# Entry
Amino acid sequence: MRGVKCSDDGLCPNPLPEGPLAEEGAEPLWESRIPIDPLRPHIYDGCTDIVFPIHTSRAFARQVGLPGNILQGTATLAFAVRELINREAGGDPLALKSVFCRFTGMVLPGTVIRVQLVGKSRKHDATNLHFIVLNQEGQRAISGGYALVKKE
# Structure
């Protein structure tokens, strides 16, 4: 949130899992292109009760310096997680044991995002997945994405 100060140094008490860095121009293991419907922020807002006018009001979003209303970061993450589950967990949502990420950019409705798997490793009976999400301008909307998938 803009103008909100942290009560501490703003550091995460449990650091995110380290993974391979997605170098510029490096080929991902796979990529999914997902169109973001212009009404998606309104639908997500109504279904999740995550209400903030930068997602549903172009006028308000522009008033606070944004180019227009933007998709919720958690909605962007939901699209990425859906792709991870479908491609890496056989469509089984119960196989997803944890997910972490950093929200680092904006997604505009009416554009296409790209979910990229940039690293994958197996450890015992689990799979570590590292991903990023690129917005319409090729900038990272989600960085440092990590998901742990384990089939029971």
